[in-house]
């Protein structure tokens, strides 16, 4: 990792793979709090802690739930690969936030 997040990433011997139901837990440039979407994870690493002070997602898979990811001003970071085609408002929200940031700069 490059020091952007208050977390440490390490490689693990375990593959995390699968589809997740996700609920955004905080507003970010890409996602609004609340709406649910579907995504997937595919990684061989872990992040400690798994979530920041403001977690990005509540993930559900196989009857289990956990929170993960980080939301800070101008940052939404997680292992979830969100399927934007299923939630087209995400792309529009992201472009609008980027345009606002460009104007403010």
Provide the descriptors you would attach to this structure in a database record:
105 residues, 15% helix, two-stranded antiparallel ribbon, five-stranded antiparallel sheet, alpha+beta
Description of the molecule:
This protein has one domain. The chain starts with 7 loop residues before the first strand and ends with a helix. It has a 5-stranded antiparallel sheet with strand order 4-3-1-2-7, with no helix packed on it. A two-stranded antiparallel ribbon has the order 5-6. By secondary structure, it is an alpha+beta fold. Strand 5 and strand 6 form a beta hairpin.
Helix content: 10-25%
Q: What characterizes the major β-sheet?
A: 5 strands, antiparallel
Q: Structural class from helices and strands?
A: alpha+beta
Tell me the number of strands. 7
Tell the overall outline.
Answer: globular
How far the N terminus sits from the C terminus, by CA atoms, comes to 26 Å
Could you tell me the radius of gyration in angstroms? Answer: 14 Å
SS field, number of helical segments? 1
Biggest sheet: strand arrangement? 4-3-1-2-7
The percent range for strand residues is over 45%
Q: Short description, anyone?
A:
This protein is α+β, with helices and mostly antiparallel strands and about 100 residues long. It has one helix spanning about 90-105; strands spanning about 10-25, 35-50, 55-60, 65-70, 70, 75, 80. The chain has one domain (about 10-100).
How would you summarize the topology of this molecule?
Layout: E1 8-24, E2 36-48, E3 57-61, E4 64-68, E5 70-72, E6 75-77, E7 81-82, H1 89-104
Antiparallel strand pairs: 1-2, 1-3, 2-7, 3-4, 5-6
